[in-house]
Structure formats: structure tokens, C-alpha cells
Amino acid sequence: MNDDVDHQKRRILTTAATLVGGVGVAYVATPFVLSMDPSAKAQASGAPVEVDVSKLKYGQLMTVEWRGKPVWILRRSEEMLHRIQEGSDSMRDPKSDELSQQPPYARNEFRAVNSEFMVMIGICTHLGCAPTFRPEIAPADLGAEWQGGFFCPCHGSTYDLAGRVYEGVPAPSNLVVPPYRFLTDTRILIGVDTESA
Prior knowledge:
This protein is of the alpha+beta class. The chain has helices at 2-35, 40-45, 78-86; strands at 49-52, 61-66, 69-75, 117-121, 132-134, 149-151, 158-159, 180-182, 187-190. A hairpin with a 4-residue loop joins strand 8 (180-182) and strand 9. The longest helix is centred in the N-terminal third of the chain and has 34 residues, at 2-35. The mean pLDDT is 85.
């Protein structure tokens, strides 16, 4: 009977030690496992951004941030769309043939899902400077041929109102169109493709 009691005590102590050890390992391992998940800030920086464009007037540009980059949304008037069509001859890639510059659904002369709204990453494709929005026609500093668009002050690259790069400037390619889709007529979700919706 003494052997039975000792054997039973041993089994109880072994089970208790195993349970306490398992809880201790889980307690110690939890912070390490959780540290492998991206932080809330990192998750938010890549998250899609929803934008309300209902108050955007024709010819007005707004900037939002997505993945740490400025994204421009320009509401284009009929006159602006006409200027885009007229200026195609002086563009390096007028039909947006270079697929890496925009999703397939924005591969058109307006480079947009809805021609009224331009959605573009506002970073020059030459050396990463920030172009300025120059909607005026034929200003003295840009010349009589200027039909409105974007001018990069760093090295003089120019883009039209569809973000297409002009020939003969340092920038090698059109401004980049991020993935996006319209949730409604006035709400855009940047960071999610139209085709994957």
C-alpha cells in the first residue's frame, strides 16, 4: 500500500509540474509569437483608402495618402478631356501601352476607369520628385503649347492631365495609376483593383 501511495503522489506531482511548465512556456512564448504580426501602423499603411469625391469641383485636385505616397484625384471637365485627346501626338506613351504604369482597366487615353476622375500617384517617374499641378493654358514659364497638366520642378519633366509623359523630358514613363475602384459614383477605394472586386 505504501508503494501505491508513493506512485500516486509521483503521478500527481509530475502532472502538476507538466501543467505549470506548459503554462509557463505559453506565457513566455506569447510575446514572441505576437511580435511576428505586423504592427497596427504597418497594417494601416498598406490598407485601402476610401475617398469621398462628392465635393470635388471640376478642375480641382485633391491629395490623399496611400502606402506613404501621395495619390492625386483630379476631377476633369469636358474641356480637360478634350485637351487630353488633342495632345496625344506629343506623348511618349499616348495609349498607355506600358502595363506596369497602370492596371489593365486604366489602359486608355484617359488612364482611368471613369474619364471624369483621374487617380494617380503624384511622384515623378524620373527621380521621385513631386510634380506641381499646372492647369492653366500657355503660361509664360511653360510656353504657348502647354495645355495644362503636371510640371516637375526638379528636372523639368511634364505630364498631361492624364499623367502621360511628354516626349523629350527626363521622365521615362507615365505617372503610375494605383489599383482602385469606384464603390459608388462619388466614393473611390484606392488599393483594391476593379477586376478583383
